[in-house]
Structure to design on (390 residues):
């Protein structure tokens, strides 16, 4: 597939237009933190600060709509609530706030297509998730939200959350990656100790391309509300699979693999963060832009990933059907590694031990070195080296 296909589908992996639009905005107290950090204007404490973040489940909610209409499986809506929440919570954890969250939801639906039962599944699913995370020692509270009927704005449904929290300035993780540190990768695939089934690892990014590249043309006729009419016909549901087709390596339906909920890493971060402060140089959540995400935080540093985690089956399936290059795959999808920690050797040992407690795949995937510019090189056995430049 040519690199322009993503743009023709109305999406962007690097969000270049968004970054241009927000250039005038203040970058907050810690410009190198993974999310924006504001002064504590609520209590006027000079020792504290406030973090706030907003995100949605993206077009994954469209896939949930299709799967629910086809199968009646309501569990997908709890997964969508998890997707939208984790996209906020993991970003904030990368900045040092791994507990003490207040969340507010914004659900926008086309009432003609999204009945009240789906809203109930989403809201109940959100409540269930918060209870599960509270039981894991995470302080998190729901402040309510807004449900808007806006069929003239959205074609099906959009699910988003805004999250805020307060933390000590001394607890903020400001990314400062040096030469000669290690890179620990945390896997998005498999079955973590808190999960009830196999997770494909796909997360929330690249789902527009994934569903169109994998699913068969019949879905364009059956669900015309799930894509923009401006999308070229040859890029609309141009795959070969039904939602119910079984992927042989995992034994799971393709639809369920695409809908695997975004794995939360913030409980893991909450546990290891107090133990690695002296050897922690930064955490990067590989979401929009995937493996190119770290480039914005690298100043004259080259990252060599010479021992990357394995690529899970879902990504191989997408690449085989779409013909997407290795470089494009790694800048659209997390490829099985959704969190990177830049740290010392002793900190890496602690992080790997903590990941093992959660049954989350992890490994030292690479190292850093001084360079003339920011760049990332990924080396996989039997494949040409991938170079991602700033």
């Amino acid at each position: 597939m040519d690199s322009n296909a993503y743009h023709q589908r109305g999406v962007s992996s690097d969000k270049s237009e968004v970054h241009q639009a927000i250039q005038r905005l203040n970058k907050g107290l810690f410009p190198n933190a993974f999310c924006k950090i504001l002064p504590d204007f609520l209590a006027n404490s000079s020792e504290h600060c406030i973090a706030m973040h907003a995100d949605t489940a993206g077009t994954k909610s469209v896939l949930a709509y299709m799967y629910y209409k086809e199968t009646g499986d309501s569990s997908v809506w709890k997964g969508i609530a998890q997707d939208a929440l984790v996209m906020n919570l993991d970003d904030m954890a990368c900045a040092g706030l791994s507990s003490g969250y207040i969340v507010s939801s914004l659900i926008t639906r086309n009432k003609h297509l999204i009945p009240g039962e789906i809203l109930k599944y989403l809201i109940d699913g959100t409540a269930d998730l918060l209870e599960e995370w509270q039981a894991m020692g995470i302080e998190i509270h729901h402040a309510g939200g807004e449900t808007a009927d806006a069929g003239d704005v959205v074609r099906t449904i959009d699910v988003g959350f805004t999250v805020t929290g307060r933390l000590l300035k001394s607890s903020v993780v400001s990314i400062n990656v040096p030469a000669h540190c290690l890179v620990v990768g945390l896997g998005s695939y498999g079955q973590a100790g808190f999960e009830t089934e196999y997770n494909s690892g796909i997360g929330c990014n690249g789902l527009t391309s994934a569903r169109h590249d994998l699913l068969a043309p019949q879905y364009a006729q059956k669900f015309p509300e799930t894509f923009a009419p401006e999308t070229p016909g040859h890029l609309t549901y141009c795959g070969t699979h039904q939602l119910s087709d079984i992927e042989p390596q995992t034994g799971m339906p393709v639809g369920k693999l695409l809908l695997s909920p975004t794995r939360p890493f913030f409980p893991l971060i909450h546990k290891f963060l107090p133990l690695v402060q002296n050897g922690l140089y930064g955490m990067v959540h590989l979401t929009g832009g995937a493996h190119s995400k770290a480039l914005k935080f690298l100043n004259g540093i080259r990252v060599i990933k010479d021992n990357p985690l394995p690529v899970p089956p879902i990504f191989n399936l997408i690449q085989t059907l779409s013909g997407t290059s290795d470089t494009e795959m790694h800048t659209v999808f997390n490829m099985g590694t959704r969190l990177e920690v830049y740290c010392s050797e002793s900190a890496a040992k602690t992080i790997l031990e903590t990941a093992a407690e959660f049954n989350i795949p992890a490994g030292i995937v690479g190292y850093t070195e001084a360079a003339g510019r920011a760049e990332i090189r990924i080396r996989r056995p039997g494949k040409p080296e991938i170079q991602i430049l700033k």
Q: What stands out?
A: The chain has twelve helices and 14 strands.
